[in-house]
Amino acid sequence: MSNDQTNRLRHLAIIMDGNRRWARRRGLPAAAGHRKGAETLEQVCRDAKDLGIKYLTLYAFSTENWQRDAEEVATLMGLLREYLKNDLQEIQKNNVRIIFIGERGMLDKDIADSMQRIENQTVANTDLTLCLAVSYGARQEILNAVKRTAKLVRAGEIKLDEVDEHLFSNLLYTKDIPDPDLVVRTSGERRISNYLLWQVAYAEFYFSEVLWPDFNRAELEKIIADFEQGKTDILIGTQMVSKGLDFDHVSIVGILNADTMLNYPDFRSYERAFQLMAQVAGRAGRKNKRGRVVLQTKSIDHPIIHQVIGNNYEEMVDGQLAERQMFHYPPYYRLVYVYLKNHNEALLDQMAAVMADKLRTVFGNRVLGPDKPPVARIQTLFIKKIVLKIEQNAPMGRARELLLRIQREMLADERYKSLIVYYDVDPM
What does the pLDDT average to over 310-335? Predict the structure, then answer.
């Protein structure tokens, strides 16, 4: 298998299983297996980075592991302290971002503090994101997100019919990373074990007989090669099949709930829906073999659905360009998204209205909003969005000056000094 093929795998999640059995087979204490497993973790991180994988999520310590023998738990926590102090420092030197997911309140304060420090130190690293699940349980993660959703609805911050998969996903521990494409479990066990239950809805699974301490690069490459060798005949979902991987013997591809793509509140949603559905459909019937695509939708008469079925790219482009020209969207106009944040929702509503009025005195009907974005709250900060449409030939330097002047006016007002403002120019 070539490295180029492997590089197309974006997010790999692994359930690291078999440390104790590895030690038992060698007549060693469990701690020896856990220590060897930590060494394997470090090597797999290097291999994943070399192979071009962008996200690596590892199941290090589950909430169920707290029920183990107190001495073993103490040993594991000691190894974790050592790992946080030494091994991760070496990993982060290689431009690796490190994040942790799980119930940190169950951990000793020094461990939780070390996790936070490492996250802060590596936040700008870009070659690989290493996500370590420590004191993690997927059921508790989902339950916490449900409780947060209920609180938001009860407080009137969101409406019940606004709750969708996108919003809910942003309330999970993994809100900053994409869902896994492939989940691997070592040691021959064939269970998910309360791991990323929401996130793996569209993932592929591979169960390796190799115990985690013996897991190596050759095994990793073998696992990804399994896809190429046609051992998966039917793929359901939009995640894995849209990544560019070619599966020679795939005969059926299912696209579930296409309406989610069509109804996303963005001017590019139709274009992106067409692109994704056409790409996914192309995964069926590789190597000169006809395949079948099953598309699930409630919008049977939607033009994009018919254009996808007919593979009518030109019609889609012509229609989208005509709409964008009519409503002043790219490529005919440039966009500036003005995001406003504050801890007080009522105050934010007031500040957003004032700023929108100030913008309209300068930019006129080029201003839309303020409105709530799809994700209207992150942690304790509420969010409002104002959209500014600017003609392609307009000087952006002048627009920038005007925006910054209005921002300074807002912040100079004692009532609005807590306002947070940032901009997204020509958003992707």
Answer: 92
Q: Please write the tens of the pLDDT for every residue from 284-301.
A: 655 556 667 788 888 889
Q: Where in the chain is the domain with CATH 3.40.1180.10?
A: 3-229
The catalytic residue positions are 17, 65
Residues of the chain with CATH 3.30.70.600: 333-425
pTM of the model: 0.55
CATH topology of domain 333-425: Alpha-Beta Plaits (3.30.70)
Minimum mean pLDDT range among 32-41, 167-176, 246-255: 246-255
Q: Does domain 3-229 have CATH number 3.30.1360.40?
A: no
CB 130 within 8 A of CB 44: no
